[in-house]
Amino acid sequence: MEAALELQGVSKRYRYFSLEPLSLSLQPGQILGLVGPAGAGKSTLLRLILGLVHADAGQIRVLGQPMPTAQALAKADVGYVSRDMGLFGSATLDWHMRWVASIYPGWDEALAQRLLKHFALHPGQRARQLSSGERMKALLLLTLARRPRLLLLDEPTSGLDPVARQEILGELLAVVEDPERTVLLSSHHTQDIERICDRIAFLDRGRLVADDDTDSYLQRWRRLSLDLPVDGVLPDVAGTVELRRDGRSAVLLTADYQPSLEAALSAAGITVHQSQRLTLEEIFVASVMQHRQERGE
């Protein structure tokens, strides 16, 4: 199956920021969550994928088309939404819908009307009258009703109330019910990513820190509360990210948990009091801190 999105060794250098060589592949029907702190390079990566800026090195293919060479060919099947996007302030939502429909032949009027109702938007509303949440919903409506095969979203739920966030996330899940459609969601809301994304990628200071299946990645991270033997010896544990000791008590954070680990520790005379899964936010923070420590940053 041809990847919906494929990046190989892509890099981009600016005066004060560099996106280091990065490889990433996204298959049709997947939702990839791109997580990173401010300044990590998420928006730069999206602009490279869209062909808005040229990579210094590497190759990008979007729906099988090389970018930015085939930007015009891919445009009809790629949707992009960012909180920084604008609407025509004096124009109504209905005008925007008719305008987009005139440009994109794949416009689905029935879907547009359903989204109008679901998002509690009114076609007669002028863009300048929309709240921030309504504006984001309007942008999503105008993009989703085109039925793009690849949807790129840059912080779509940032600053929204919990209800608006859930409405938007629900629509994104509906998108990938079609196995030919794919979503890349850039966000610092790890709860959103954990809820709807089947793939995750962590970006920090222009470097890809992690890229994995969400469930598998979450399963491998554990926090273990331990009682050590009298001699206090703790054998090496694969994937140890952090170890805190207090006398014969210890808390171990591992990124390579296996079901056999607890039995191995028990055989070494170590009691495992608690084995706790971490949230994606906890994992993200630990991954970034470990990555920076390894690089001496």
Walkthrough of the structure:
The chain is an alpha/beta fold and 297 residues long. It folds into 2 domains: 5-214, 3-Layer(aba) Sandwich (Rossmann fold), CATH 3.40.50; 222-277, Alpha-Beta Plaits, CATH 3.30.70. The chain is elongated, with a radius of gyration of 22 Å. The two termini are 40 Å apart. 33% of the residues lie in helices and 29% in strands. The protein contains 10 helices and 14 strands. Helix 4 runs antiparallel to helix 5.
Give the tags.
single chain; 297 residues; Rossmann fold; 2 domains; six-stranded mixed beta sheet; 14 strands; elongated
Task: Give the secondary structure arrangement, pairings included.
Blueprint: E1 5-13, E2 18-26, E3 31-35, H1 42-50, E4 57-62, E5 65-67, H2 71-75, E6 78-82, H3 93-103, H4 109-118, H5 132-144, E7 150-154, H6 162-175, E8 182-187, H7 190-196, E9 199-204, E10 207-213, H8 214-220, E11 222-227, E12 240-246, E13 249-254, H9 260-267, E14 271-277, H10 280-294
Parallel strand pairs: 3-8, 3-9, 6-7, 7-8
Antiparallel strand pairs: 1-2, 1-4, 4-5, 9-10, 11-13, 11-14, 12-13
Helix pairs in contact: 4-5
